[in-house]
Amino acid sequence: MRKKRHTCLDSIICLEEIDVCGTYSISKRPVHQDLQKSMMRTTLVLLLGALALCHAQLSETEDAGVEEEAVELFTTDKTKMAAATSDFGYNLFRALAGGDPKTNVFLAPISVSAALTQLSMGASPDRSERWLYRTLRYHTLQDPQLHNTLRDLLASLRAPGKGLSIAARVYLARRLRVKQDYFDVVEKQYGVKPKTLMGGAKDMNEMNDWVKQQTGGKVTSFLSKSLGRNSGVVPVSAAYFKGKWITRFSHSGAKEDFKIDGEAPFSIPMMQQDNYPVKMGVDPDLGCTIAQIQMQDDISMFVFLPDDVTQNMTLVEESLTAEFVQDLSMSLHTVQVSLTLPVLKFSYSTDLLPLLAGLGLDEFLADTDLIKITSQAAKLSSLNHKVVMEMAPEGTQYASSNPAPTPLSYRVDHPFLFLVRDEASGALLFIGRVVNPRNLRI
């Protein structure tokens, strides 16, 4: 149980100005100043009246000193599991993004959770499994059937139409005398059998072929070089996502300027549509405007667009939790905007192993204790991860045919953060930071 928190506003939203292109800016002002100007902007303020109402309700509650309503956000084993995998994903993303604020960063956390959970099935229950569970946030679940719950969650996320393909597997060095029971229990639970490494280029080719097959041919060249001679335990994870919007974009491919902090703007392909329905809100404390855009099969994308052209999105990154995003999904309000988004197509790969120590697995990495896999000493050699994502302009519905376009504009034309979420479960599927889309390529 937790207290209901209104996240859509910390102050009254005012439309500071609207230029000839319909772009608006939102500022945080003392309440009395907004009220003095409200009569002059009645029509404009009504467009975001629901958002202002959210703040007013919050202020009334605080003034009255009444305790807020207690709300349970995650009520089933599946949604609790989704929240756990999401929180692990946000922690992993923060660790990855913190390395260099000037780089694009992408992650498919659910596939990493799947790979490390398979590994946990070979760990000693009193030590290594406990460390892995804490990092994966499973210690919060109190679910004796957590493997069944995760299996069911993964099956629902792989459902036809969602556009998500996941590959997760544990590879083991040939020199390790691996216990057959481990192979059997993982295959029975998750439908994928751990694989013994043969050595040399064969391992790279086998991994690349398997990942390509699991992702429908979309994630290719998973490894670009052979594994080292001393490879021990090698969990791998990969994901492909091609999202489809509910509301289509009528204009796509035209190049427009994308602004970069400290550099000259450059042109990239954009997709644009007037009268586009989005859920939107402003968080002045984070200094960003947030839009939730609906996709097919109960998927949505959240876009966090900083007020300024900046590479520093630390405040936004630090705020992300499963609870915060669930709050957003309930607090944002529907408006129609002139929406402009970059055409996203990218491939990204990295070794996540160096990040694990900072997530609380330093003891595990020092002494893996995989007693259910082998009685020999076994170390993790790498945690290779690769993602491919495409966003097409197509959709099943057309935007409103109202000939008068909305005066509101949401232009994602400078560095931003986004996440893709399964609304039914709340599971985080993809998360990324786009600093320089010129460097994105498949």
Automatic annotation (TrEMBL):
Residues 90-437 form the Serpin domain. It holds the Pfam family Serpin. SUPFAM superfamilies: Serpins (SSF56574). PROSITE patterns: SERPIN. InterPro entries: Serpin_CS (IPR023795), Serpin_dom (IPR023796), Serpin_fam (IPR000215), Serpin_sf (IPR036186), Serpin_sf_1 (IPR042178), Serpin_sf_2 (IPR042185). Belongs to the serpin family. This is Serpin domain-containing protein. It comes from Umbra pygmaea.
